[in-house]
Amino acid sequence: MSDAQQRETYLAVVSQTGPFSGVVYVDVLTDRWQQLNRISAAVSLDKRLIRRIAMNALLPHEGYIPVADGRVWYQIIGTGPGIPLLALHGGPGLGSAGLQPLAALAEDRPVVLYDQLGGGRSDRPDNPALWNITRFVAELATVRAALGLAQVHIFGHSYGTILAAEYALFQPSGLQSLILSGPVMSVPRYFSDVNRQKQELPIKMQEAIEWNEAAGTFDAPEYQNASLGVDAPAFCRNEAILATMLEEFGDPVTGINPQVYNTMWGPSEFWITVT
User: Fold this and answer.
1) Which of 18, 20, 74, 247 could form a disulfide with 114 if both were Cys (CB 3.0 to 4.6 A apart)?
2) Rg of the chain (C-alpha set)
3) pTM of the model as a whole
4) Would you list the domain boundaries of the chain?
5) Distance, CA of 115 to CA of 13 (rounded, Å)
6) Under a CB-based contact definition with an 8 Å cutoff, are residues 127 and 274 in contact?
7) In terms of C-beta density within 10 A (0-12 exposed, 13-18 middle, 19 or more buried), how is residue 114 classed?
8) In whole numbers, what is the pLDDT of the chain averaged over residues?
9) How confident is residue 35, by pLDDT bands cut at 50, 70 and 90?
10) Please, are residues 198 and 209 in contact by the beta-carbon 8 Å criterion?
11) 152-157 and 175-181: which strand pairing?
């Protein structure tokens, strides 16, 4: 296939509109195709650079939805006949990268992912007053309405289970089921569980946690490494997927937003300031 034919095929694919109403889909224009060709001809693309390029090239059934205080990025995977599954990622302050394995369900039904405001590809306004559960429940309702999800299953993971449960308390019409993965329904219970896990870490990691918490140096590398000793197994048991997730979390563009996390949770999984 010639370069011109590849370009036409590329533009034809990315300009398709999905089965849902109410969203303006963003086409990839000719200058984007030319820019990608120039970059690929100039450098040997590694995995991280490809990811960065993809940040600015919207693929089929991806786009942005205007919500209060910014825009959130969404992705629709598959066009199966079943009722769509809308997935809520954890964090707070992360994106939906860790939920990509749900794409395996897309043959049966559309799988809808979105990055909550402040995380992932979504806008990141610098305003701690925005980061509260009430705002995120309203955002979830806006996303669902914009995508025309009259009937929906909602999947929540980790912090996303808190958001899912809060939303379900309003008994929204058309909510078919609530699926909670690694639920956090009680902060005191979570705190008890995570402290039990902390006691299973090597003694040096436990000492690093205790010393840095006493000093208030939560961003110290040894404290962050010790935190991962507890966090990583809880995120994912598949080592290959976990490695990709951790790379995404640490990315300066799409990684965790510390302002959101610190405001809604605390400086670490062990030091929780919410009630």
Assistant:
1) 74
2) 20
3) 0.74
4) 1-58, 187-264
5) 23
6) no
7) buried
8) 77
9) very low
10) yes
11) parallel
